[in-house]
Amino acid sequence: MSRATREGKETREEKAARIRHLLATEGESVERNTKGFNAGRYDAVRELSDYEELKDEARAIKEDAISRLPELIEQVRETVEENGGTVYLADDAADANRYIREVCDDADAETVVKSKSMTTEEIDVNDALEADGTEVWETDLGEFVVQVADEAPSHIVAPAVHKSRETIAELFEARFDPDRPLETADDLTAFAREFLAEKIADADVGMTGANFVAADTGTLALVTSEGNARKSVAATDTHVAVAGVEKLLPRFEDLSPFVELIARSGTGQSITSYVTFLTPPGDAPTLDWDADTAGEGDRDFHLVLLDNGRTDLRGDDQLRETLYCIRCSACLNSCANFQHVGGHAFGGETYSGGIATGWEAGVHGMDSAAEFNDFCTGCTRCVNQCPVGIDIPWINTVVRDRLNREGDDRNFDFLVEGLTPDEESGRLDLQKRFFGNFSTVAKWGSATAPVSNWLARTPGVRALAERALGVDSRRDLPEFKRETLRKWFESRGGTRVEGANSGGTAAGVREAVLYPDTYTNHVAVERGKAAVRTLEALGVAVRIPDVPDSGRAALSQGMVSSAEAQARACASALAPHLDADRDVVVVEPSDLAMFRADYRKLLPETEAERIADNSYELFEYVYGLLENGGDADALRGAERETERGEQIGYHSHCQQRTLGLERYTTAVLEELGYDVSTSDAECCGMAGSFGYKREYYELSMEVGESLREEFAGDAQVVASGTSCCEQLTALRDDDVPHPIERIAPRN
Amino acid sequence: MTSLVGRFECEAADAGCEVRRTLAADFADALAESVERPAVGAPLPFTSVSLPEYVTTDPTPSDLDAAATGITPAQFAVAEYGSVAIRSTGGSDEAASLYPERHVAVLAESDVVGDMTAGIERMGKIVRAGGDAVFATGASATADMGELVVGAHGPREVTVVVVEDR
Lengths: 747, 166
Known about the structure:
The complex is a heterodimer. Chain A contains 36 helices and 19 strands. By secondary structure, chain A is an alpha/beta fold. Chain A folds into three domains: about 55-310, 3-Layer(aba) Sandwich (Rossmann fold); about 415-470, no CATH class; about 485-745, no CATH class. By secondary structure, chain B is of the alpha/beta class. Chain B has one domain (about 5-165): 3-Layer(aba) Sandwich (Rossmann fold). Helix content of chain B is about 25%, strand content about 30%. Chain B is built from five helices and twelve strands. Chain B has helices at about 5-15, 25-35, 60-65, 95-100, 115-130, and strands spanning about 20, 40, 55, 70-75, 75-80, 85-90, 100-110, 110-115, 130-135, 140, 150, 155-165. In chain B, strand 10 and strand 11 form a beta hairpin. The two termini of chain B are about 20 Å apart. Chains A and B meet through helix 8, helix 9, helix 10, helix 11 and helix 12 of A and helix 3, helix 4, helix 5, strand 9 and strand 10 of B.
């Protein structure tokens, strides 16, 4: 049951309408369920004292398994055959379906019962069997609901996550016309259980997936809660298990970290009700309801191992990590966008959520991945949640880059050549090119301000920007300042710390480069000035050299070559300062994330390492200065003795939180007497340029709404990221500055 | 320090199980409190601990449908997770632990292991001997009908009877 393939390319307006529809019809259920899973996950992993070690162990096992996959396939074939079963290695979906149809045909199967398996969704086996006249029933209750509704799963673990109890009740009433009304979730469960019990009793073939397959013993591990997988196997005398080849683990004992991590990472349970280990054919008696006998347990067993693009994924240096995925759904549940639209928007033909981009690109091709890849904003909240440490945003970036190169949108190339000189092919989507080259736009904006700002507010220009660039006209555009931070700094005579700037710096004076990111330099200049005053008050000699864009904007649009070129230029500009032992202090968290994390992918290792080691988030640096004897009295909190306990809401930036740097801002604000409340929302919804885009504006506002509600009781709110500040300012209709503006000395 | 069985009791209760401790001599009484008839089951492998006569040990499918309780041995338990390992033998263990509304697992206190690493190692011995088994933790459950429901395809209630002197 794959999602209907849309004819041609969807326009921005059509996409916006589709998202609006999903927000209205499915958003509420998706949000309630995924946020519940996500909160459960935080609690469940906190119980593990060795969580990080388990993740490392799981990752190492997967790396090893995938590296010797061909060997494991041969090994499992031998073990399963020795045990008395059959292994079929299927090249693709058609091959797998052909084999499964033959097995069902040999078993004279009229009815097949299935337990939940995304891999069987991937190959559309139900359609193939039904075409032969075989009845197929999904026995997992969530899968049963989507089967009855004739829909596709909206979540890889909880397929009916988009449906509320009421909509399921309506669906069952309409389809089955039950004798008694079905009102409660208990009623619905009891009805489905009874209905499916008959189907299971009648079935000839039981089909399952496998969460893991141990190559050395030929054991399938099934992680379930309802008991339907156990029944589907117990009640039938032919068992077909369908699993992607990546499910193989070398040894049975390798299962241990996965059993500990999979349910915690997914639905937030410590373990699911049933973790079944089947080494077929097994001994359990087969049950025959017609004859009312329990048979000898002589099951026929077929393990269908599916390739379907996985061997190619394995050979792909950038996308190989996808195969480490254990499909736990942590990256779905921790994603702010997914929490609001679910997998019917944020998903391809079969898979959904952040990691789905890798899966869809691998098993269904780039077209399927292209449909939803933009929903990943690169916020990185999923990175630390993935139990096998897959860099999911990077996979999305790589796929976006490949899509950019095969795009066909040439319509407005004449507008951008020159305005946005970049390393990308001329086929890059104009919207991506615009946002990916924001630093060029900003330079022009400051140089011509205020004219650029007047121009940007002109209705005709906004309409053109919306039409040509997809910049939503409901968004306030950033206002460029005529005097950039660097100009201001220069005109005040550089740093005012004694002993600096006069042919060398006095011994003992700490020197730092304040990185002039595009926003701080051209738009949010006040936060840059506040940063300078704060650092100077703590005795740091500040420099603001001409360092180019970090490449963040380009990377966020999947313009990897441009990002690489910019990273190189940025690194060269920073190099002399690093040589002189200067620290690099960064205001904008997304740029810091480039220096600390993304540069490892874009620059030679030692160069990336040096930048990562010497760059600091602004409050991380201030915290360090205060801890090392810096005088807090020099900051603004000290003069507000009467205001101690003043309430302040603080929203950290998504990438900042992934780097574990939220706590420094909170600690410094608290030290200066603030009573700080922090947000739980994974992301503000703006996510750089995402919220400006015509097709995503409404989703962005919906995501932001959750954050607004969290701060509803706060008189003042501060946020670390530029886009978070803009989003919160729009939502609260009140200025939301960077926290540095609350602690900097006034002059 | 809490004993292994104490930890198990705590975690199994958290997972929604009822846990009863008994001496082998009092087993019949402890069991009677947890069983609703008709009952099906699989023979217990512990010395001087056996199923009462009213338990049907080789149930047909219609016996399974009619049964209110299924009684099976637990091969071992994992304390940190409150999980019991139910082995699918050539007998009725798998079906008796799965079909009736109530499952009673009988566990020897000496068969409790501490953590999942130990649990998987112990499970590996069963697997390597060609056996099938399941870690069962609490009752069957689903969140697919709009809210959490205990009792999906499998049992709705689970009791673990821990025999302290076995």
